[in-house]
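User: quick one
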Amino acid sequence: MADVIKVADSSEMTLETVRDSLIREEDTIIFSLIERAKYPINVGAYDKTKTAIPECSDSLVEFIIKETEAAQAKCGRYENPEEHPFFPDGLPTSLVPAFNFPKILHPAAASINVNSTLWEVYFAQLLPLITVPGDDGNYASTAVSDLACLQALSRRIHYGKFVAEVKFKESPQEYEPAIRSQDRDALMKLLTFESVEERVKRRVAKKTMLFGQEVSLNDNCDEKKLKIDPAVVSRLYEEWVMPLTKLVEVEYLLRRLD
Amino acid sequence: MADVIKVADSSEMTLETVRDSLIREEDTIIFSLIERAKYPINVGAYDKTKTAIPECSDSLVEFIIKETEAAQAKCGRYENPEEHPFFPDGLPTSLVPAFNFPKILHPAAASINVNSTLWEVYFAQLLPLITVPGDDGNYASTAVSDLACLQALSRRIHYGKFVAEVKFKESPQEYEPAIRSQDRDALMKLLTFESVEERVKRRVAKKTMLFGQEVSLNDNCDEKKLKIDPAVVSRLYEEWVMPLTKLVEVEYLLRRLD
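Assistant: Done. Structure below.
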């Protein structure tokens, strides 16, 4: 086990420490998806006509996430540049003393937030793939599980800002021409490594198999009893997590010389 | 994977389905502990002198848990008899239409809540065993992780009400004499099965080893890199989770004939 948890500062963040953070975040994402899959789809959490909240036009999941983000904002969650709210408008300011988070990113980073795209993808595409039909009435717990998934995915995706910063710092000459000409396609090409992406996809599938198995004292992994399908998590990374991370990287680099 | 998630009703809850729920909850508990261990101890989340919230006498963790429980209460979380708040006083009522949760428990169950004991144990004893020293400023995220651990442990422990109900229903004659004489010790004896408890301890250690390993594509579990110590989770179950569950069972049975 780790003896100390290091706090990164701009001098010690390297491609390797960034990579370690992304790999650790995979575990968080997979745990949160497995936990969401405990509940059925539970449309009551999303359908305003089924579970109306008096004097409020939000669905239950919107209501609970807004209230939860507000409480966390008051306690300083979004002072950390790794964290991004889903409902930034009207979020209360932090009530607690400022913590001196290391200044690693270019100030333009603060304007990049792709959570609205993540929200769409999560509810419209991912959720039906990891849940079964049904309604067990646990709408609040379901919405809390959704938020855990969304926050983990959001942290992974927006960590692209740090990935981009470290890559830029390591070889600015490689990126500067494309940044100066604001060439998105060229930047995307520079940031894409297919063999690395293939390994990520295989690793998250392996983790899903290990973490989602039914463990007993007698036998080993019983694949028929996996809590979520490893292929779905590979697909999640291939179609959404890695493309959105690279989108964040590109958006960041486009502003890196501002 | 499961094709449907069954909603238990009083006729279909058996010792086996109760046991399956307890085993599934082990995974949730271990995931949440692993996630809490991502952060150092972060005393700023607990020490009012370090992180004071203006016009509030609560610590940051108390503040955020009260606000979060209030939001979840408005969305009906505590309408489910499996859920128990840590701060029940002044909790808002549910704003959403009532869900028809199956009526399985004796009404006296509603008065049993051992969360204040769990709170003490968690912060004073467990937390120092699963975290490393340090301060990374993520107090809100740390407190949210604490709440996830507390809620998972609370659900497991209070599930003792269902365990006791099912055991009572299966052989009331076994429990009635001790209930009538309000004999706690006799009830505790009836509810204790050492060989079962040994198996639980070994199973949670095995799960901690599997879920807390650093997974790579090349090799297998590297025990030196485990995220939390399996022996700590075994001890958590031995010293706190199983005794508190049995305490809930005893409290429930003492009121079962009221």
